[in-house]
Structures are given as C-alpha cells and as structure tokens.
Amino acid sequence: VFIAQSRASGSHRDVEDEELTRIFVMIPKTFTEEDLREKFKMYGDIEYCSIIKNKTTGESKGLGYVRYLKPSQAALAIEECDRSYRAILAEPKNKSSESFEYDYYSNNMRQELRGNTLPFCMQPEFCSFEKPETRIQEPVSKRLSVVSRLPFIQEQLFALFDLVPGLEYCDVQRDPHTNSGYAVIQYSSAASAIYAKYKLHGFEYPPGNRLTVIFLEDGNDSSE
C-alpha cells in the first residue's frame, strides 16, 4: 500500500506498476463484466475487467480481474471492498493463470476451514450448496467416498481433507478406463466426517472440477 501511494501522483507506468494495478477477486458466478465493473468503479478509474471462464463450458469460474489506472486505486479496492470478494493483487501475467487460480482456491479453502466460517453464505448469491432444512436424514459414518471426474493426487487430497481434524487415512484409487478419481477417507469421529462432507461436497478442487462426497457404511452404529 505504501508503494502504491507513493506512485499515486505520477502518470508513468512501468512493468512494476502493472503488477500493482491488477487485482484478483472471487465473485458470484452470475456476475457479468459489467456487474464487476459496477462493484469496483467506486475505488478508481478501471482500465478493464475480465471474468475467468471454464474453457469447455464457457461458464464463469467465479473469479475475475480488475485493472486500475493507478496502484493507489488497486490498493484502495483491496482495503475497502467487501471481504467476501477476497481481493488480492494479481500475479504477474508471466505466471500460469491456472497455477495462480489453484493456489488462490487452496489458500482460501484452508482459511475457511480453519476459521470454521461460511462467509459466502451470508449472501444467497454466493452459496454453491443448499443448507439442509432438517436434521441429517441419511446414514452417517466416519468414512467418506470422494469421486471426481479428474484423477486425484494423493498428497493434495490428503492435505485438503486433513484440514478437518481427525483424519485417519486417505486411500486414493484410479479407474484406468475412465481416468476418474476415487478415494476413501476415514476420520476418527463421525462429527469430523459430517463436517468434511458438509464443507467439501460440491467444492471445486482443482477449480472447475466438483468433488462428490458421500458417506460410506463403516459398520458402526450411526445413531450415535
């Protein structure tokens, strides 16, 4: 912020300035570029807005870029915008955008799970799942089945589910015919498994790939 403010009065823009004028934000998937511009124009003069879309379906990934004319404006947007946008300075363009998106999602997921919060569900437009209206009706257990259309990397999946306390093991398998991912997760308590399913079912990991998480019968009395 101090660097950005020191350059606020100058009109010269070098490569370093370019890295200080572009911000990366998490947005509702219903947002258009005009919606994005409307939300962030109050912080300064916007050069352009862009929304990251799935290359196959053309659907928004719920992520976008906003580039301002001055670093001070980008700094102000990061400081003043609603925390639900998770605004940060964007990585330089020479870094792989997919790698940056992956890191961004992973870091935010870690913060959300550790904080035991659901910030996006304060606003219905951000919710990617529906909260149950009644108590859980399905049989629960300490074991979960995780299915994905993409193959899993053992270390990454373990790290993701290990954010919920009580992980005992993560067994990753791969179907050689479909190349899809399948894994069995077990926690030390049903409470941890319920929380992991609630937080991670439907979660995009990596971005664009939704996880399907269901309970697996473990032979224990689920009434407890």
| CATH architectural arrangement of the domain at 17-89 | 2-Layer Sandwich
Task: List how many beta strands DSSP finds.
Answer: 8
The computed structural class is alpha+beta
Q: Would you tell me which CATH topology of the domain at 17-89 applies? A: Alpha-Beta Plaits
Ends: how far apart? 52 Å
Strand order of the largest sheet: 2-3-1-4
Unreliable segments (pLDDT under 50, ≥5 consecutive)? 116-136
- Write down the overall mean pLDDT: 77
Q: Using only CA atoms, what is the Rg?
A: 20 Å
Helix coverage percent: 25-40%
Keywords: RNA-binding
GO molecular function, one term: RNA binding
Pfam families: RRM_1
Protein name: RBM45 protein
Task: Describe the protein.
Among the domains are: 17-89, Alpha-Beta Plaits (2-Layer Sandwich); 143-215, RRM (RNA recognition motif) domain (Alpha-Beta Plaits). 29% of the residues lie in helices and 22% in strands. The protein has seven helices and eight strands; from the N terminus they run H-H-E-H-E-E-H-E-H-E-H-E-E-H-E. The chain has helices at residues 2-6, 15-18, 33-40, 71-80, 97-115, 154-161, 190-200, and strands at 22-26, 46-53, 60-68, 88-89, 143-148, 167-174, 181-187, 212-216. The longest helix is centred in the middle third of the chain and has 19 residues, at 97-115. It starts with a helix and ends in an 8-residue tail after the last strand.
Give a short synopsis of this structure.
This protein has helices spanning 2-6, 15-18, 33-40, 71-80, 97-115, 154-161, 190-200, and strands at 22-26, 46-53, 60-68, 88-89, 143-148, 167-174, 181-187, 212-216. It is α+β, with helices and mostly antiparallel strands.
